[in-house]
Fold this sequence. Notes:
Number of strands: 7
Distance between the termini: 27 Å
Helix content: 40-55%
Radius of gyration: 25 Å
Number of helices: 11
Strand content: 5-15%
Oligomer: single chain
Amino acid sequence: MNKTLYFFVFSVFCSLSSVFCFAQEDVVKINDQQVAGEFFGMPVSMDNYRFAKAAIVIFGPRWGAEPKTPQELEDRVWEDLLLSYEAFRRNISVGSKEVEDEVAKLLEAEKVTFDWKKDKDAYGKWVTERVKEPAQAFENQIMHLLQLQKLRMQVIDSFVPQVTEEEAYQEYLDQYNTLSLELVQFDDIKAAEDFYNKMKNPRVWEKKGKKDPKFAQRPGFVSLQFLMDLWKIPRSDAYAMLGLPVNSVYKPTPVYRGYGVFRTLQKRVAEKEKFGELKKSYFDQVKRKKQFNSFGDWLKAFKKDAKIKVYATRH
């Protein structure tokens, strides 16, 4: 196929009515037939590249982590382009009613005073002022994001993982077991150990807290799953803290950045008997997690097979 690939990148995770990212560069340019790159050996036009990039810049990421660097943004653009191609290949469509519903939610969140369906001039003016592009392009980007979401859900739902009772029970324990902690962070283990040796007596910790209530962080009364996922506390340490009496000071342990020394303030311990009442929901949660993990593996392999080649696009 020698011609540039012109597939419609009309293809969001959650509702589009959440947040705009209005700090937009000039990413929408019409009828630019320069080639931005290729995948599966097929050229991708600069028009499609700019369209996909504009959708991310305007609406923000609707799937996965937010791009924090130019390279991460570039990677996300090409991922969305590739997924748009796959959605097109699978004949995944988005109806006008779906687009209208999303526009309505978005405008409601923005608290506009006009009827966007009846007053097209006011709607067009609002879109142009807010995102510096015509209303049709704006709606096409919404269609694009909805199409990508449909594709992701289709792929995710196609996986049928097996879930054991042991896995569901562990999920119950991770989510139901709950701790309220105080935490002091350090960049290196030596500083954390020195602090622990001075503060391991809870009375000393309490005295310090009365003098300076802000010396320790409080993540809140949260599940062990939260502490393991968000704070990156090792599972063994999270469960060791759960096993200690309230008001215990726990030794230095790795956290998402550096090391932490902890004091337990409150805890709720999961009861095995309650699992029977909640078993199905935890089976479903483990299944969904496995499906999302499988989607990540699928996407990684899909991008590898596509052999994406990016030409000069940052200009």
